[in-house]
Design a protein that fits this description.
Layout: E1 3-6, H1 17-24, E2 28-30, H2 41-54, E3 59-63, H3 65-76, E4 84-88, H4 93-96, E5 118-122, H5 131-141, E6 144-147, H6 164-185, H7 190-197, E7 203-204
Parallel strand pairs: 1-2, 1-3, 3-4, 4-5, 5-6, 6-7
Helix pairs in contact: 6-7
Pfam families: Ser_hydrolase
Organism: uncultured Pleomorphomonas sp
InterPro entries: AB_hydrolase_fold, RBBP9/YdeN
Length: about 200
Amino acid sequence: MATLILPGWQGSGPEHWQAHWLDLMDRTVLVRQRDWNRPDLGDWLDAAVKAIERHPNPILVGHSLGAILIAHLASRYPELPIAGALLVAPADVDNQADGLPALASFAPIPTGPFGFPAIVVGSRNDPWMPAARARILARMWEAEYVDAGRAGHINAATDLGAWPEGQRLLARLTSVARHRSLALGSGFCGGAVRKAIFPPAAAAN
């Protein structure tokens, strides 16, 4: 099962935990965008869809705008084979786009439930999205919410290194996705299995 890394606006530099994961983890692939500084939703979706087609049933790991990209993928391409998603510090493009026109194409944020297991990681002092709103989105997406404490935007500035806690969340999500895949292959109801082993909108500290 591959892990696809989806950075946000301006990409993830060498000190970002996403860059560390690319160096440390097997079967981890960066989804490259044509223009990191002038994001266009259509272009970013095309790149992500092509990556998923090359690596079917991946775990998606999105940070900031990359997390919002996952929500658009789930909404616009429900048939895509996605095993699970880790959405870290999603960017509130609905309330930031006026001041940052580069993000406007990503608004509004889709709010429908995902068709796969997901974890949303929010921060209590994230300048890009209040924790309360991140919790609401997690509930709408039927995802688990994890409170990272006061971790800023959970990026290179937070000085997380390889972010061991995030790696543990990814490992747990991957385990859930594998159980779900086995259950679906056995003919069980995917939604029922997902909710039984991965309760939606659960809160974790």
